[in-house]
């Protein structure tokens, strides 16, 4: 049987250190040994190289053996009972005897491998009552502290007492995973780290990911020699995921980092809050130090205490803020906005408008005008911000404590008001409300220059060689907005938007009311004009026709005068026809209440009998037509106009043929989707027209031929289009010169 080690020898450099595969180092720390069993058979598939030191048998002898054969059936039964009772990674560790030596074992599963990490039982352990006393002390912290920082300070102190480490820090991350020493307890002779900041590069992404999976990490001696893990060489690139292993070997970069700090041993406990790495309990010792598994679990319990209290403590800290901003909100919410700029000017001067989110100033941009109060940018800058934020947020909202991050080219603007809460007041346009917060310069103490977190020197990669204090002055930044402040600003902005929308609706109603009055008056005037057209104008035309007709029968009228009288008579008749068509067009108005079921076969049949040629029964041919909803009088006028046009524009010396047919099944109108119509076509064999006029022929007074060639006013097809529009339908035409015309009519289904 051939065996090999699985030590990861991948070269780490400046370009790939953030992708270092720290979960598969292929080695462990030497304060225990590790074996990996196949889940189905319990055969030993992985084994650390230090088993000889702990149990007197070499790893080469263990690999390939069944666990029961190697350690006895009693140890096998204890392991199976432990696994079957689902105790893996629980607070109750597996205590067992392996080859006559007692061990405390941490057991977990990695893919299809059961990993056992065995550590010898330490006879010098704290008594159970001591551990209990320390643990119960933490419970009292919940009742004796109010702020989160006070609680963390007591937890740091208590954790140091129970573990004996030289320094215990509560390390808190910001949104970008830069860390801050939030609370600390250390030996009096040590330099305190409290308040120091560490860049996010100190704990790379893959390390943070492991902290999320494995809540406890211990290094007993920074100067340890990694123990390789061996396996049976039966497949290529074989390795073992040690993400959850306590003994997992550490990245050489991290070891160098701790060396640079002068640390000899560490214990790290993850603080998880809302599925995110909130922080760490970081314990440092300046010489080698190991903890028993019991003490590790007791220390880990402190992390649970902190994370269980984060919500409560932050709520306590935010309560006063919330109470204050809610009081301002209640007052300003009672302000009733009315129409007009005076009301907006009065609103902006209300001190509660600034107080509802503890801002230093507020601006309201509405209909091109700026209203401001407190510390705000200039009017032109407010207009710029309103336009920028509207586009950037797509008319939603945004908040920032460092406006310079969004507008790096506008430092002078961002210095005065670096904090901003923006809320749009319409779905499009620049109307908005913006709260501002003034600059708060602060001094951030970094543990070394954060820009030099990992450098390349003679010895290779060297993380954080210097931990000397490095000060950074942070400007163009405001105090962060707290969640109650953001919530209150959002609530008020929504309420203000509703008030403004109501005012707009009222204004629109008033505008439409005035327009309706004007339209009513205009319609009345048009009706009067129609009456004048039908009566006062037609009367003189009739007299002109009557007089000209009488004169035509006089014997002594010269021939040239007779011709002029005939032209006058024809012009007067054309004018009278035009006036009658205009009257029909303008009076075409009705509602759907007038609709009834109309049998088009019957209605069009009547039209055909009225317009057809008795000598040629094939002049107008009809298909079976559907029943539609409409006004019979207007539908009859529709088909009369269409069939009359087909007859009027017939070819000379060719029999007139007009077909009215229906599509066999409902169809969609070309510009509509998923709305079927009855399609009826009126087809003739007349002179046709150029298709480029297919739309314009439905416009009023449009004529394609001279009045001397074909009679008509140019109103007929416009009247047809209006009839179809009022029937919620469509009309269109297709034609080519000399090849007839096809008119398509679309009626909604009943």
Jot down its keywords:
750 residues, Beta-Lactamase, alpha+beta, 18 helices, Heat Shock Protein 90, eight-stranded antiparallel sheet, six-stranded antiparallel sheet, 39% helix, single chain
Structure, described:
The chain has 18 helices and 31 strands. Among the domains are: 118 residues, PAS domain (Beta-Lactamase, 2-Layer Sandwich); 171 residues, Beta-Lactamase (2-Layer Sandwich), CATH 3.30.450; 159 residues, Heat Shock Protein 90 (2-Layer Sandwich), CATH 3.30.565.10. Strands 1, 2, 3, 4, 5, 6, 7 and 12 form an eight-stranded antiparallel sheet that branches. Strands 10-9-8-14-13-11 form a six-stranded antiparallel sheet. Strands 25, 27, 28, 29, 30 and 31 form a six-stranded mixed sheet that branches. It is 39% helix and 23% strand. The model has no long low-confidence stretch (mean pLDDT 82). Helix 5 packs antiparallel against helix 6 and helix 16 crosses helix 17.
Concise account of the structure shown:
GO terms for molecular function: kinase activity. With 750 residues, the chain is α+β, with helices and mostly antiparallel strands.
């Amino acid at each position: 049987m051939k065996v090999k080690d699985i030590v990861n020898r991948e070269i780490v450099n400046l370009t790939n250190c953030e992708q270092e595969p720290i979960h598969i180092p292929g080695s462990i720390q030497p304060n225990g040994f590790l074996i990996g069993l196949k889940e189905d058979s319990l055969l030993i598939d992985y084994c650390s190289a230090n088993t000889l030191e702990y149990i007197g048998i070499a790893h080469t002898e263990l690999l390939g053996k069944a666990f029961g054969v190697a350690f006895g059936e009693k140890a096998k039964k204890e392991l199976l009972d432990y696994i079957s009772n689902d105790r893996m990674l629980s607070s109750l560790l597996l205590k067992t005897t392996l080859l006559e030596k007692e061990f405390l074992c941490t057991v977990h599963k990695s893919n299809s491998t059961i990993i056992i990490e065995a550590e010898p039982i330490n006879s010098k352990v704290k008594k159970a009552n001591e551990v209990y006393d320390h643990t119960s002390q933490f419970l009292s912290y919940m009742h004796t502290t109010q702020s989160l920082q006070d609680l963390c300070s007591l937890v740091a102190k208590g954790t140091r007492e129970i573990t004996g480490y030289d320094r215990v820090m509560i390390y808190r991350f910001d949104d970008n995973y830069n860390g801050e020493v939030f609370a600390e307890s250390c030996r009096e002779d040590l330099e305190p780290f409290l308040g120091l900041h560490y860049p996010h590069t100190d704990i790379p992404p893959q390390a943070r990911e492991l902290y999320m999976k494995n809540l406890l990490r211990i290094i007993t001696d920074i100067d340890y020699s990694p123990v390789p893990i061996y396996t049976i060489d039966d497949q290529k690139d074989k390795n073992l995921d040690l993400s959850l292993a306590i003994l997992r070997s550490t990245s050489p970069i991290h070891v160098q980092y701790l060396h640079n700090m002068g640390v000899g041993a560490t214990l790290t406990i993850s603080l998880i809050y809302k599925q995110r790495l909130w922080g760490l309990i970081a314990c440092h010792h300046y010489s080698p130090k190991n903890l028993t598994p019991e003490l590790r679990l007791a220390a880990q319990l402190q992390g649970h205490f902190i994370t269980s209290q984060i919500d409560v403590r932050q709520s306590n800290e935010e309560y006063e803020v919330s109470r204050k901003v809610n009081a301002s909100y209640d007052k300003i919410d009672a302000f009733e906005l009315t129409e007009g700029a005076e009301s907006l000017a009065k609103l902006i001067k209300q001190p509660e408008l600034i107080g509802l989110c503890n801002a230093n100033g507020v601006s309201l941009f509405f209909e091109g005008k700026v209203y401001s109060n407190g510390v705000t940018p200039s009017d032109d800058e407010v207009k710029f911000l309103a336009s920028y934020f509207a586009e950037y947020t797509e008319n939603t909202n945004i908040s920032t404590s460092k406006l310079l991050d969004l507008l790096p080219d506008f430092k002078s603007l961002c210095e005065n008001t670096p904090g901003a809460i923006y809320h749009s007041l319409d779905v499009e346009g620049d109307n908005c409300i913006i709260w501002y917060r003034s600059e708060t310069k602060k001094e951030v103490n970094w543990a070394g220059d954060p820009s030099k977190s990992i450098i390349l020197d003679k010895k290779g990669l060297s993380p954080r060689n210097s931990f000397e204090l490095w000060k950074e002055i942070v400007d163009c930044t405001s105090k962060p907005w707290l969640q109650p402040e953001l919530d209150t600003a959002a609530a008020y902005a929504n309420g203000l938007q509703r008030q403004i929308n109501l005012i707009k609706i009222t204004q629109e109603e008033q505008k439409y009311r005035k327009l309706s009055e004007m339209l009513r008056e205009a319609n009345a005037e048009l009706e009067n004009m129609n009456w004048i057209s039908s009566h006062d104008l037609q009367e003189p035309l009739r007299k002109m026709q009557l007089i000209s007709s009488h004169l035509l029968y006089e014997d002594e009228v010269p021939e040239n005068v007779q011709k002029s009288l005939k032209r006058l008579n024809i012009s007067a008749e054309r004018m009278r026809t035009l006036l009658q068509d205009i009257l029909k067009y303008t009076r075409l108005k009705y509602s759907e209440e007038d609709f009834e079921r109309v049998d088009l076969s019957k209605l069009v049949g009547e039209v055909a009998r009225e317009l057809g040629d008795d000598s040629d029964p094939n002049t107008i041919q009809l298909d079976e037509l559907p029943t539609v909803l409409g006004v019979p009088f207007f539908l009859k006028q529709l088909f009369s106009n269409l069939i009359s046009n087909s007859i009027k524009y017939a070819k000379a010396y060719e029999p007139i043929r007009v077909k009215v047919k229906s599509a066999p099944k409902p169809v969609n109108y070309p510009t509509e989707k998923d709305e079927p119509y009855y399609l009826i076509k009126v087809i003739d064999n007349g002179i046709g027209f150029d298709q480029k006029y297919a739309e314009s022929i439905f416009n009023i007074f449009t004529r394609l031929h001279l009045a001397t060639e074909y009679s008509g006013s140019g109103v007929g097809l416009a009247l047809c289009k209006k009839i179809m529009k009022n029937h919620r339908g469509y009309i269109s035409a297709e034609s080519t010169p000399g090849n007839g015309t096809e008119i398509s009519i679309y009626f909604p289904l009943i």
